[in-house]
Design goal:
Lyase 2-enoyl-coa Hydratase, Chain  A, domain 2, six-stranded mixed beta sheet, alpha/beta, binds coenzyme A, 2 domains
């Protein structure tokens, strides 16, 4: 499945790699790339051969260097509002609530909308050369794709305020210390490390991955009670094929088979 600025590759069984393909513009997110990413994720959602999605940027310099500044420099207040609203809806919130785990492979600059995209993913790994920041204040803006909300939740309010107000970039090592990325590896090992983690996820019940994402996310939503959501999602697992396979396998002292090869 390929688009003009986005490619989707099936790697090993059940793993898909989504790559943003605008290397000359450091993979900046223009309107059509955002819409193509949305279409790619919609297709991956219903693809039974995909259980984990990795997302990265093409080239060795950037994951995504932000929203495409050349596209919105002339925007009015109304157009700016719509840009953020639509983007959050079709891409950033869509990925956060995706029914399959999405891992960001941050392979270089992740700035502005790029860091916001990585933060919308369920977790992040970075290469040693990665640099992360929210430089919107240097453009007379603030982050508009969820950055002011997700960054404090991931790294704490004080550190987030410092990053947002200075607009500065942090190294992969500091991002790791902050808990913004889970692991830092050499650039050539980034995708293979993500694949190893994806393979471990795939050994487990796919329905459990889906509801675990919902339960964790519920705790970060102001209009939801995370504990109550957990109770009802926990209950919803009983009687499912995955539950029957998992518990039967344990009681019969064998490994569960959730279809992973
Ligand atoms: N929007 C549009 N184009 C962008 C872009 C963005 N966010 N980020 C990079 N590009 C383009 C540059 O304009 C340049 O295009 P050109 O070759 O046609 O002039 C190309 O990508 C390469 O970028 P360049 O700035 O020459 O690379 P660099 O190595 O000197 O600097 C960065 C790298 C990331 C520090 C710098 O590109 C940058 O600051 N980008 C903007 C980051 C930002 O503010 N993002 C938040 C947007 S809301």
């Amino acid at each position: 499945m390929n688009f003009e600025n986005v490619s989707v590759q099936k790697l090993e069984s059940f793993i898909a790699l989504v790559t943003i393909e605008r290397p000359k513009k450091l993979n900046a997110l223009n309107k059509s790339t955002i819409s193509e990413l949305h279409d790619a994720f919609v297709a991956l959602e219903s693809d039974d051969e995909v259980r984990v999605v990795l997302i990265t940027g093409s080239g060795d310099k950037a994951f995504v260097a932000g929203a495409d500044i050349s596209e919105f420099s002339e925007f009015s207040k109304e157009e700016g509002t719509l840009l953020a609203k639509k983007g959050q809806e079709i891409l950033f919130d869509f990925i956060e609530n995706f029914s399959k785990p999405v891992i960001a492979a941050v392979n270089g600059f992740a700035l502005g909308g790029g860091l916001e995209l990585a933060m919308a993913c369920h977790f992040r790994l970075a290469s040693e050369n990665a640099k992360m920041g929210l430089p919107e204040v240097s453009l007379g803006l603030i982050p508009g794709y969820g950055g002011t909300q997700r960054l404090p939740k991931l790294i704490g309010k004080g550190r987030a305020m410092e990053m947002i107000l200075t607009g500065g970039m942090i190294s992969a090592v500091l991002a790791n210390t902050y808990g913004l990325v889970n692991t830092v590896v050499a650039q050539e090992e980034l995708i293979s490390t993500c694949i190893s983690i994806a393979k471990r996820i795939i050994q487990n019940a796919p329905n459990s991955a889906r509801v675990a994402i919902q339960a964790v996310n519920a705790g970060y939503k102001n209009d939801m009670n995370g504990f109550q959501t957990e109770v009802s999602l926990f209950g919803s697992c009983f009687g499912t094929d995955d539950f029957i396979e998992g518990t039967t396998a344990f009681l019969n002292k064998r490994k569960p088979n959730f279809g992973a090869k």
